[in-house]
Write a structure and sequence with these properties.
Length: 85
């Protein structure tokens, strides 16, 4: 999906507001968040609404479910409880 003019305008507006917020905070590490904003408005590669089904060219980009690691996390929790941590 190619970004149209409306997407670029919204990206610029949101980016300017975000940059002003970062300057106000005086913490320039937050500028790394511009990459997320760029993906939200322009590229749309990451499925940020992972609970919804997505169709199209980027449908294979999904979040990894933690259900695969559920037993691992349960085991760690039980080991901590038994040790008294």
């Amino acid at each position: 999906m190619k970004a149209d003019r409306k997407d670029w305008i919204w990206f610029i507006i949101v980016s300017v507001i975000y940059i002003l917020w970062v300057i106000w905070l005086n913490n320039f590490w937050f500028l790394l968040g511009l990459g997320i904003i760029f993906d939200l408005y322009i590229t749309k590669k990451v499925n940020w609404t992972f609970w919804k089904r997505r169709e199209g060219e980027n449908s294979k980009f999904i979040w990894v479910s933690l259900d695969k690691n559920k037993n691992f996390f349960d085991r760690i929790r039980w080991e901590r409880m038994l040790k008294g941590v």
